[in-house]
Amino acid sequence: MKKLSILFAAVMLVGLATVAMAGPRGQGRGMGPGSWGQGMGMGPGSGYGAAMVPGALAKLNLTADQAAKIQTLREGYLKEVMPLRNERFSKRAELRLLWAQTNPDEGKIRAKQEEINKLREQIQEKNTTYRLGVRKILTPEQWAQLIILKGKQHRHGGGRPPGQPGMNW
Q: What is the span of the domain harbouring residue 107?
């Protein structure tokens, strides 16, 4: 029993150290410190979720009405998605603990993975809804410019590589 307690403490310590060293992981871009922006503002560098590269809003020449609509959309998106992301983060930590057991319970591991997958699906659906909403606000020219800016951002080494968590567009 004592060995199990020591193992559990060691796993928790490694997990906490990993989280501390990783920084604000899983939040998406433009959603907090360390991401593209530093919060929910709409100025250059703030982003509006994953689609904005630093200064992109200024380059898109958004009207005040467009900026306000995107801000409102983004705030609603964050209110919906952040609890799901936080829950997914917790479930992933629980899954790591299940895997760390001496005799992992396959049923519990599979059930926990299914919970995580359902949360991921919900988050992806909200991302899609958000992106479609932003696209409706932008003119076709602004959307095309955003795609160009996003491509330049990836070529210059910023952001996550394709396929990584977050809203890569």
A: 2-155
- The answer to whether residue 165 is domain-embedded is no
Q: Is residue 84 part of a domain?
A: yes
> Within a domain: residue 135?
yes
DSSP secondary structure letter of residue 162 = T
pLDDT in tens, the chain (169 residues): 566 555 555 555 555 555 444 444 444 444 333 333 333 333 333 333 444 433 566 688 899 999 899 989 999 999 999 999 999 999 999 999 999 999 999 999 999 999 999 999 999 999 999 999 989 999 999 999 988 887 776 665 555 544 444 444 4
* CA dist list (Å): 37 to 27, 85, 143: 11, 18, 20
* Domain count of the fold of the chain: 1
* Sign of the CA dihedral running 17, 18, 22, 26: negative
* CATH number of residue 80's parent domain: 1.20.120.1490
The string of DSSP letters for 54-117 reads TTHHHHHT--HHHHHHHHHHHHHHHHHHHHHHHHHHHHHHHHHHHHHSSS--HHHHHHHHHHHH
Q: Is residue 45 part of a domain?
A: yes
Amino acid symbol at 130: Y
